[in-house]
Structures are given as C-alpha cells and as structure tokens.
C-alpha cells in the first residue's frame, strides 16, 4: 500500500500549507506523526504499535522524530481511559464523541505529554498543541485546545 493510499484510507485531513517558511524540529515532526497514528487509532481502531511506516508521515521521519512519535502514540493508546476521563472532566458540556476527531486526538496527545513527559514544560506542550490545531483544524479549535489543556495542567503530578 502506498503512502497516499494509507493516508486516504485513514481519512486524515491534509495539513494546511504553511504561509511562511517554518523550521520544524524533530519534536514537532514527532507530534504531527503521533497525531496521524492517534487519529488512525481513534477513527479506524488501528494499534499504533502495528502501523506501517508510511502511516506515520508523508515525509521520512528522523530517528528522533520517529521515536518520539511512537512514544506519544503508544503512550496515548496505553493510557487512553485515564486521558478520556480527564477530557470529560474538563471539557464541560462537551461529549468526547461530539468533538471533532482531530481535536480529540490533539487533546489526547497534549494530555499525555502533560501527565507523563515531565521534562517538557507545560507551556511548550500547550503551545505545540495549539500550533498543531491551527495547522490541522481551525482557529476556534486552537482556542478550544488551549482552554482544555490549560485546565488539565493542574493534573501534572496529581
């Protein structure tokens, strides 16, 4: 199966083109690749640990980005029940099933990072999630993601 076939089959929305040249680090690339894997897990039931390489990214990933992406996607899959409980708690008046799938996946990744990647400052986690939401979803979604993750940050270390 080609890369474009995997992406088409997964239903992952295409990224918006960047308006300006932005240098992406391996952690941003890893987060974006993890988003694709978490999305496929959420929508198609695919286990991130079993996804073929083309499902992770249109572009070849650096080893650091690939390792980070797998850490995030497999971590979200392994702690999804706890993450979803927190999302339900803090997304007042929002049912998880009614959220846009891409926003739900961004929130799951951000929540996982807040709870488990203690070396990453919370402000970085939230900023990255907001920027990814702007790129893959909408401006309204980026504000929604920011608000929910801002509430969840108090759960770090709890």
Offer a quick outline of the entry.
The protein has 158 residues and is an all-alpha fold. The chain contains seven helices and no strands.
Task: Describe, in plain words, how this protein is organized in 3D.
The chain has one domain (3-14, 23-155): NusB-like (N-utilizing Substance Protein B Homolog, Chain A). By secondary structure, it is mostly helical. Mean pLDDT is 86; it is low at 16-23. α4 packs across α5. 63% of the residues lie in helices and 0% in strands.
In whole angstroms, the N-to-C terminal distance is: 43 Å
CATH fold field value:
N-utilizing Substance Protein B Homolog, Chain A
Strand fraction equals: under 5%
Number of DSSP strand runs:
0
Unreliable stretches (pLDDT < 50, length at least 5) are: 16-23
Rg, Cα atoms, Å? 15 Å
**Average pLDDT over all residues:** 86
The gross shape turns out to be: globular
Structural class: mainly alpha
CATH-wise, what's the superfamily?
NusB-like
CATH class: Mainly Alpha
Oligomeric state of the chains in view = single chain
Helix fraction, binned, reads: 55-70%
Count of helical stretches: 7
CATH architecture: Orthogonal Bundle
Tell me the number of structural domains: 1
Instruction: Report the order of strands and helices.
Output: HHHHHHH
Largest sheet entry: none
